[in-house]
Amino acid sequence: MSRRGEIAMTDDEVRDFLAAHRVLQVATIQADGTPHLVTMWYGLLDGDVAFWSYGRAQKVVNLRRDPRFTVLVEDGETYDALQGVSITGRAVILDDPDDVVAFGLQLHGRHQAPGTEPTPEVRARVAQQGAKRVVIVMKPERIVSWDHAKLR
Asked: What is the pLDDT of residues 6-63, one digit of tens each?
């Protein structure tokens, strides 16, 4: 077995890793072909990586022109602890206000208030923010993963 095969995560390990982390790197393609790389909070929507952003943000402009992109979630401070999941695929952009607000509330719960119901004030703030946002859902075409702890 190749070294790559030794450190690859199983499908369940990938799912658990993505569920446990909160921040991902998002790489889209600019009009001139150069990468545009940003860091985003993310969540999972029906098992797919998703994040929200202003509809006029550069990454969204890029994805409307060319839906191909890559995301990366990684962890580990030393070589033997490095873990990561890189997903390449295509974007589906959700702009229905109900979908956007529902996802915004999910992100709020995941990142700011785990395990709590959003207050009316939070709901109002997320709805206000959602008016200018869209949700980007990653539809995977290729997933690469690594867990260097498997080398021990």
From this structure: 899 999 999 999 999 999 999 999 999 999 999 999 999 999 999 999 999 999 999 9
Place of tokens 């799912």: 15
Cα–Cα distance between 151 and 143 in angstroms, integer?
A: 20
Neighbouring residues of 107: CB distance < 8 A, sequence distance ≥ 6: 41, 42, 43, 51, 52
The reported pLDDT for the residue numbered 73 is 98
Task: State the sign of the Cα–Cα–Cα–Cα dihedral 45, 40, 112, 114.
Answer: positive
> Are the C-beta atoms of residues 140 and 87 closer than 8 Å to each other?
yes
Counting DSSP H helices and E strands in the chain, the numbers are 5, 7
Query: The pTM is what?
Result: 0.91
Distances in Å between the Cα of 124 and the Cα atoms of 66, 87, 102, 113, 129 are: 33, 33, 12, 15, 9
Among 1, 31, 8, 152, CA closest to 86 = 8
Distance CA 98, CA 95 (A): 8
CATH of domain 3-97+134-151: 2.30.110.10
Residue 90 is predicted with a pLDDT of: 98
